Amino acid sequence: MTNGNGNAPDAAPAPQLNVLAQYTKDLSFENPNAPASLQQQGQQPQINIQINVTANNLSEQEFEVVLSVEGKAEMASKVMFSFELAYAGVFRIVNVPKENLHPLVMIECPRLLFPFAREIIATAVRDGGFPPLMLDPVDFVGLYRQNMERAQQQAQVKPS
Question: DSSP 3-state assignment of 86?
């Protein structure tokens, strides 16, 4: 027997993840050695990228998730360009068990934000006079595990 919408009367409501807003919180691009950095270079620059995810509870069901991406391209110890992006989204999450909430917020939410952040970075680098920087996909599960292990190690080191 169903309750009229195809669900059994005692079935738990389906989990929901809704994106309420997406926005650039902070964007910085620097080309400190222009115009010399824009000349044809004989080799590829060394590019370093750092990615971090933070989240803030806005209410019981709403979270702001910030995907921070910092990068720098260097050649012969000279900075070609550098950038910082904080790209955020507000997510409403309902009907998710409490034990699954933290991984959902810290893995799935930044996964949804990443393609937009990637496009902003590619455009900023291109507009800075360089070929667009296309970031490789990010393993947010691996990043989450790494951050959880680091937090556990720091908790063990702290004196009681």
Answer: strand
Question: How confident is the model at residue 4, as a pLDDT?
Answer: 56
Q: What is the C-alpha to C-alpha distance for residues 126 and 116, in angstroms, rounded to an integer?
A: 15
- Low-confidence stretches of the chain (pLDDT beneath 50): 1
Task: Give dist(CA 64, CA 49) in Å, integer.
Answer: 23
DSSP letter, residue 105: I
Pairwise CA distance, residues 11 & 105, whole Å: 24
What local confidence, expressed as pLDDT, does residue 154 receive?
Answer: 83
Q: What is the CA radius of gyration of the chain?
A: 21
**Given CA atoms 44, 111, 25, 54 in this order, what sign does their dihedral have?**
negative
The SS3 call for residue 129 is: coil
Contact 113/67 with Cβ under 8 angstroms?
A: yes
Q: So what's the pLDDT on residue 5?
A: 59
**So what's the pLDDT on residue 1?**
45
Q: What is the dihedral of CA 91, 92, 96, 101, to 10 degrees?
A: 40
CB atoms within 10 A of CB 30: 14
Spell out where 11-138 has E strands.
Answer: 16-30, 46-57, 62-75, 78-94
Separation of alpha carbons 45 and 80, rounded Å: 8
Instruction: Check residue 33 and give its pLDDT.
Output: 85
